[in-house]
């Protein structure tokens, strides 16, 4: 950590000069963006400072229970986000539970595997490792799962006639929903595939940039980034697969009927 | 052949109906009476209660895909999931003959998006016939066809009953039940009866 340059709060104020300049332009040109721009910048500042304080407290406490509580709060926010991002969602508790469950299962499995098997901090749940890792994995899985479910539900609702045509010709519920499933999986996997394709060529990933800025050898930073990308890809894939298959299972029944009555429209 | 007793859904029934081997049964009635819903319920596409059996075997005793291959339902508007007509049909020796019989000899090489409503209707009927069903449930199979095409489809349907299958069709064509020699039933408010009520008879 030899080359690490600590920032003061005055540095941050100075860094916001260009953002404030944008707000001034907006007012001068009457673009109406100044208000939103300033509000979101302030909101971000408060959120991040709070997160910094909370993480500092959790790191100091070094308690398994506080770490788990923080992870649970993150998962709850992500679960709510999955629900909000679907135009059509399963009715009842399934609407939140299915997507959040798939995300949590895939995310926890991959996080635990990485912590216990690969990174091996001591103790295994050490919050400096566990929380950022879980956060990254959860965030990506959340995006994948919500895209996958949204695409699946729209495809089934709009393609009802096509799905039923295949059922009527003696297809099983899995055969009849295969085109919708394929569409959903493709859309759920797209962000992570795009991220893998662009990483390092178009942009340096945030985590790697952070490590390099804090003085880590770029080759070491790359190794960490690769590890993370593999974990993110794996977790997203598991989450999307689990969520879409479970949702098809819920939206059909054992008599191979399409059960759109189990879907709510917002 | 097909026995239906006390078939019920939230909007239809109770309905009792028996279809004889090699027979035609026609249902007419005002729109919204539940004719299409009745066919969907028989095909087990909507949930229903009651007793439905094919040649003595109860519907619930066989997997739903098997049931639908033997009791084939062709909705008024059919679904086409691929771009080409060919992808909706399996290769079979009798396919070409059937397509020719309804005047669609070259249809396999066409694109679904360019089919007319009447072409879709005829192709959907043939797609169902290819399953070799014992019972056919047809929802207005000739509503979008001109008189010569209607005649061709009726010949195809008669071919099927001559080979022993039973056909239940919904129709708004007043002459069709007689041309097919069908038992004619009326549906109103989800119930079947042997003769139209006063309003419907006008």
TrEMBL record, chain A:
<feature type="transmembrane region" description="Helical">
    <location>
        <begin position="12"/>
        <end position="33"/>
    </location>
</feature>
<feature type="transmembrane region" description="Helical">
    <location>
        <begin position="226"/>
        <end position="249"/>
    </location>
</feature>
<feature type="transmembrane region" description="Helical">
    <location>
        <begin position="53"/>
        <end position="78"/>
    </location>
</feature>
<feature type="transmembrane region" description="Helical">
    <location>
        <begin position="131"/>
        <end position="152"/>
    </location>
</feature>
<dbReference type="InterPro" id="IPR005226">
    <property type="entry name" value="UPF0014_fam"/>
</dbReference>
<comment type="similarity">
    <text>Belongs to the UPF0014 family.</text>
</comment>
<feature type="transmembrane region" description="Helical">
    <location>
        <begin position="90"/>
        <end position="119"/>
    </location>
</feature>
<keyword id="KW-0472">Membrane</keyword>
<feature type="transmembrane region" description="Helical">
    <location>
        <begin position="192"/>
        <end position="214"/>
    </location>
</feature>
<keyword id="KW-0812">Transmembrane</keyword>
<protein>
    <submittedName>
        <fullName>Putative ABC transport system permease protein</fullName>
    </submittedName>
</protein>
<dbReference type="GO" id="GO:0005886">
    <property type="term" value="C:plasma membrane"/>
</dbReference>
<dbReference type="Pfam" id="PF03649">
    <property type="entry name" value="UPF0014"/>
</dbReference>
<keyword id="KW-1133">Transmembrane helix</keyword>
From TrEMBL, chain B:
<dbReference type="InterPro" id="IPR003593">
    <property type="entry name" value="AAA+_ATPase"/>
</dbReference>
<dbReference type="Pfam" id="PF00005">
    <property type="entry name" value="ABC_tran"/>
</dbReference>
<dbReference type="InterPro" id="IPR003439">
    <property type="entry name" value="ABC_transporter-like_ATP-bd"/>
</dbReference>
<keyword id="KW-0547">Nucleotide-binding</keyword>
<feature type="domain" description="ABC transporter">
    <location>
        <begin position="2"/>
        <end position="202"/>
    </location>
</feature>
<dbReference type="GO" id="GO:0016887">
    <property type="term" value="F:ATP hydrolysis activity"/>
</dbReference>
<dbReference type="GO" id="GO:0005524">
    <property type="term" value="F:ATP binding"/>
</dbReference>
<dbReference type="InterPro" id="IPR027417">
    <property type="entry name" value="P-loop_NTPase"/>
</dbReference>
<keyword id="KW-0067">ATP-binding</keyword>
<protein>
    <submittedName>
        <fullName>ABC-type multidrug transport system ATPase subunit</fullName>
    </submittedName>
</protein>
């Amino acid at each position: 950590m030899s080359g690490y340059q600590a920032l003061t709060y005055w540095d941050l104020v100075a860094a916001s000069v260009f953002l404030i300049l944008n707000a001034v332009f907006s007012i001068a040109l009457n673009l109406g963006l100044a208000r939103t721009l300033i509000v979101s910048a302030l909101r971000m500042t408060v959120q991040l400072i709070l997160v910094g304080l909370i993480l500092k407290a959790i790191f100091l406490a070094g308690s398994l229970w506080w770490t788990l509580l923080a992870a649970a709060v993150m998962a709850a926010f992500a679960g709510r986000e999955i629900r909000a991002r679907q135009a059509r969602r399963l009715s009842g508790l399934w609407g939140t539970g299915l997507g959040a469950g798939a995300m949590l299962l895939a995310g926890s499995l991959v996080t635990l595997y990485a912590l216990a098997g690969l990174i091996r901090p001591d103790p295994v749940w050490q919050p400096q490792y566990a929380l950022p890792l879980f956060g990254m994995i959860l965030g990506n899985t959340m995006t994948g799962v919500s895209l996958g479910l949204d695409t699946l539900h729209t495809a089934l609702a709009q393609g009802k006639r096509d799905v039923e045509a295949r059922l009527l010709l003696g297809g099983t519920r899995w055969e009849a929903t295969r085109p919708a499933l394929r569409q959903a999986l493709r859309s759920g996997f797209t962000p992570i595939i795009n991220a893998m394709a662009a990483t390092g060529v178009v942009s340096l990933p945030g985590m790697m940039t952070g490590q390099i800025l804090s003085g880590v050898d770029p080759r070491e930073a790359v190794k960490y980034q690769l590890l993370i990308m593999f974990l993110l890809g794996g977790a997203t894939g598991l989450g999307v697969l689990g969520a879409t298959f479970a949702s098809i299972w819920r939206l059909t029944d054992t008599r191979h009927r399409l059960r759109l009555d189990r879907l709510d429209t917002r | 052949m097909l026995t239906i007793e006390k078939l019920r859904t939230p909007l239809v029934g109770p309905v009792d109906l028996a279809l004889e081997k090699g027979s035609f049964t026609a249902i007419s009635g005002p729109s919204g009476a539940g004719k299409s819903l009745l066919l969907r319920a028989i095909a087990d596409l909507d949930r229903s209660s009651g007793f439905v059996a094919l040649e003595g075997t109860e519907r619930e005793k066989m997997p739903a895909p098997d049931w639908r291959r033997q009791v084939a339902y062709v909705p008024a508007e059919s679904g086409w999931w691929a771009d080409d007509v060919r992808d909706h049909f399996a290769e079979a020796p009798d396919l070409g003959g059937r397509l020719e019989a309804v005047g669609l000899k070259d249809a396999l090489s066409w694109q679904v998006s360019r089919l007319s409503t009447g072409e879709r209707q005829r192709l959907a009927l043939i797609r169902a016939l290819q399953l070799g069903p014992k019972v056919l449930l047809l929802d207005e199979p000739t509503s979008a066809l001109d008189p010569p095409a209607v005649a061709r489809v009726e010949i195809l349907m008669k071919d099927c009953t001559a080979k022993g299958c039973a056909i239940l069709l919904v129709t708004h064509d007043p002459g069709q039940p007689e041309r097919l020699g069908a038992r004619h039933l009326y549906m109103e408010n989800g119930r079947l009866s042997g003769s139209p009520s006063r309003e419907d008879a006008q």
